[in-house]
Structures are given as C-alpha cells and as structure tokens.
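Quick one:
INPUT:
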C-alpha cells in the first residue's frame, strides 16, 4: 500500500459479503475526500496432522482472492466515481497482514461477522485483534448496516476517564464535524449491583451526576474549544457502560471507543466494554488508541 497523503480508507475484505463495510467505506471516503484501498489476505491452510502437512497456498488461493478483490473493486468504482480505488492481495496470517497495512492508512474499515448464522458462533477474532493492534482508528461495521440520514450525524463517544483519553474526544468531535452532526459524550458509571441502589438512592444519584457533569465540563473544555462549531452534549449516566453504549448504538451513526494501553508484553488490548460493544452494537464502532498513560 503506497504512502499517499491524504491517507486512504483501508477496506479489509474477507469475501464478497461486505455490503455493510463497503457502504461505510464509501461514505467515509466521500467525507474525507480520499480513495479506498482494498486489501485481501490469503491465509495459509495446513492439511494433515503430521509436521510435514501440505500447506495450500499459491496459485489456487491467490486466484480466488483476486476474484474477490475484482468483484468488490467493481462495486466500489461504481459508487465512488472519480475517487480512486486500489487493490492489494497479500499472503499470510490475516491479522498480521491487516495490522501491518494499517500503518499506511487513514482509517481501517472491516465488517463484523454476521450474527445468528445457523450453526455458527461468531468469535470476532479478526475484528477484535485488528482493533486492538492497528496503528490507526478501526471501524467495525455490522453486516446489516445501511446509511441513515437521521442516525448518521449522531456521534456517540464512551468516556472512561476523559483526562486519560483525549484522542477519543478529539476523534468523536472530528467525526461529527465531517458529518455535519453532533457529538454525545457519555460517561457511564456503575459500581456494584449490591450497593448502588442504596448509596445512590434519591438525591444521591442526582448529586453524583451533577458533580460528574461539572468535572466533565472543566476537563473537556480545552478539547471542545478545538471544534467550536460542533454541538456537544455531555451525558453522565448511572448505568453499566456496555449496556448504555449498546442502547445508544440504536440511534447513533457511529460509536467511538478507546482501547486500553498496557505495560504487559502483549501490548494494547480492548477491555471488556469495548469487546461487548463490538459484539452487540447496532451501529458501526470506531476504536481508537487513547493518549498514552501519564507517567508520575
């Protein structure tokens, strides 16, 4: 994938069933006024149980991968008009190929596995792994996604600690600006099923939400000033984060979340909330790498 500025939308395709991701990539390319780069990774396939098992790769698999790329590229070219479409076929572990290619893209778009296929349990293994390790934001698109003029301008962002995740807020604001829309910045708080109803009964919840709102307004003021024309709603809410974000996804154009950074050798990871929202969201989910953790 060539280094081209502005960077293209990288659309990762596994097969020709990419209606949701293709539609989103088209809309994103138009918003950014850039082309789309199509990438298909041909995996090596081992046949046999012994160490000398035959590895099937090469002409047959590459030919099939080429047919997939040609079919999807033809559909893209019809939709994008003058915006360029390029294709790339690589051989190797799918996650490794997609993650490496992300270093040259502006955003990565891939389609979430279809839920409810008879006899199949979706694991989101590729989606989760790419979202956890890509060098740029990753958008996971439900297979059934279609453009919606009412939902598309609404950008929802899930905030844990806003001070530690400025890129989540910046990404949400920039996305809302590109869409000519508005941003809902949610901070969901929930401590314990056993005690929350007692501790936050009556005015307790209202007082806690009012304090959180003041903290959000103060902490986010410099970031919000970067996009003064974007309408912003700050929403502290007493609920499990994954539950409220999935509920918001029913009326959102996109949900923006930040992955975790880790000091462990295996590097960044998604966290339980991001994994749950990726699995259940009705809207596309945009996963970004939050700002590095502060050092004391």
């Amino acid at each position: 994938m060539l280094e081209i500025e502005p960077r293209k939308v990288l659309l990762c395709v596994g097969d020709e069933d990419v209606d949701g991701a293709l539609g989103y990539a088209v809309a994103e390319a138009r918003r950014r006024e850039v082309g789309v780069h199509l990438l298909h990774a041909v995996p090596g396939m081992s046949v046999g149980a012994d160490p000398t098992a035959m590895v099937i790769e090469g002409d047959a698999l590459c030919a099939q991968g080429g047919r997939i790329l040609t079919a999807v590229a033809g559909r893209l070219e019809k939709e994008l008009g003058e915006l360029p479409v390029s294709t790339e076929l690589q051989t190797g572990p799918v996650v490794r190929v997609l993650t490496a290619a992300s270093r040259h893209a502006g955003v990565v778009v891939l389609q979430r596995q279809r839920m409810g296929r008879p006899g199949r349990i979706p694991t989101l293994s590729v989606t989760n792994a790419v979202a956890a390790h890509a060098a740029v934001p990753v958008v996971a698109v439900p297979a059934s996604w279609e453009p919606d003029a009412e939902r598309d301008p609404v950008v929802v962002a899930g905030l844990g600690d806003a001070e530690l995740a400025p890129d989540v807020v910046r990404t949400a604001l920039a996305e809302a600006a590109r869409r000519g829309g508005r941003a809902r910045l949610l901070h969901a708080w929930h401590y314990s099923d056993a005690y929350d109803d007692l501790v936050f009964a009556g005015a307790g919840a209202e007082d806690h939400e009012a304090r959180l709102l003041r903290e959000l307004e103060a902490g986010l003021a410099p970031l919000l000033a970067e996009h003064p024309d974007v309408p912003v709603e700050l929403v502290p809410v007493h609920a499990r984060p994954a539950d409220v974000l999935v509920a918001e996804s029913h009326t959102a154009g996109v949900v923006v979340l930040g992955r975790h950074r880790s000091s462990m050798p295996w590097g960044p990871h998604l966290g339980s909330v991001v994994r749950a929202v990726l699995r259940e969201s009705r809207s596309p989910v945009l996963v970004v790498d939050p700002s590095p953790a502060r050092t004391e």
